[in-house]
Amino acid sequence: MRGRARFILAIDALVLEDVDALYGDSHVLHSVSLSVGEGRVLALLGRNGAGKTTCMNSVIGWLRPRKGRVRFFGEPIERLSPEAISRQGIGLVPQGRRVFPSLTVRENLQVAHQKKSSSWSLERVFDLFPRLKERTEQHAGSLSGGEQQMLAIGRALMGNPRLLLMDEPSEGLAPLIVAEVGRTIAKLKAQGQSIVLVEQNVKMALELADDAVILNTGRVAFSGPVAAVRNNQTLITQHLGVF
Q: So what's the pLDDT on residue 14?
C-alpha cells in the first residue's frame, strides 16, 4: 500500500540457545548459541574434537542437551525423539555416509521418502545426481565412495527437509568428487535450501556459506558472516590451524 512501510521479518530456521552437551562425564559443548537463517548456509567449523558433530547430534536428537534450548522455526525440539525431529523437517547427511549397503540405490532413496510432501522425488534426485540414475538397481555397498556420498545426500533430500545438516560431506573423497559435492551444495543453496555445513575443508566451506560459527573446545570462538573469517588470517590460524 502507498505511503506505508512494509516490513519483512527474517525467520531463523534453527536456533541454539546456551546449549550444554555431555557424553557421560565428558562436557563437550559449553553454552553454545548459534542461528541459521531460512535459506542460508551456515558453516560450522573447528578442529577435530571441537564439538561440531556433537552439536549436530544435539540438533538431530541423538544426544539430548543437558542445558539450553534448540528451536526449529520457533518451536522447541530439544526433547523430541530423532524420529519426531526428522518428521519436523530436519534431514541429516551423516559423517561416513552410512548408506544401507544391502539395499539398492532406489531402495535407499525410497526408504527415506516423506510421503506427506512431494517436493523431492526419485526423478528430482536423479536430475541432481545423474550417476545414481545409472545405478538405480545396484546395491549401495558396491558404489564408490563418491557415489555413496551422492546417495547419502539424495536420501536426506527424499525426506523433504526444511533444514539440511551435512556432516563432513567431502571427507575421504577425491578432489574431483569434492568439487562435485561443492557444486551440489551450491545448487541446493540457490534453490533456497537452509543448510548447516560441517567441514574440515575450510576453503570450500567459506566459499559456499553465508555465515560461519567456529567452535574451539566446545565453545563458540566466532560467529558472524563468512567474509569476516576470510579476511582474518589470524582467526583462521588460531582456531582452525590452516593457512
A: 97
User: What pLDDT was estimated at residue 172?
Assistant: 87
What are the two backbone dihedrals, phi and then psi, of residue 190, each rounded to the nearest 5 degrees?
A: -65, -25
Phi and psi for 127 in degrees, rounded to 5?
Answer: -65, -35
Residue 22's DSSP bridge partners are 27
* pLDDT at 8 exceeding the cut of 90: no
Residues 135-145: tens digit of each pLDDT: 999 998 999 99
Give every CB contact of residue 62 below 8 A, 6+ residues apart in sequence.
82
Rounded-to-integer distance, Cα 194 and Cα 107, Å? 26
Whether the pLDDT of residue 2 is over 70: the answer is: no
Of 19, 28, 40, the C-alpha closest to 224 is 40
Q: Model pTM greater than 0.90?
A: no
> CA dihedral defined by 215, 217, 221, 223, rounded to 10 degrees?
20
Please give the angle made by the CA atoms of 205, 218 and 21, to the nearest 5 degrees: 115
Q: Across-strand partners of 67?
A: 20
- Integer angstrom CA distances of residue 111 from 12, 30, 83, 94, 125: 29, 36, 14, 16, 14
Mean pLDDT of 80-100: 91
What cell was used for 177? Answer: 568428487
- Check residue 60 and give left, alpha or beta (phi > 0: left; psi -120 to 50: alpha): alpha
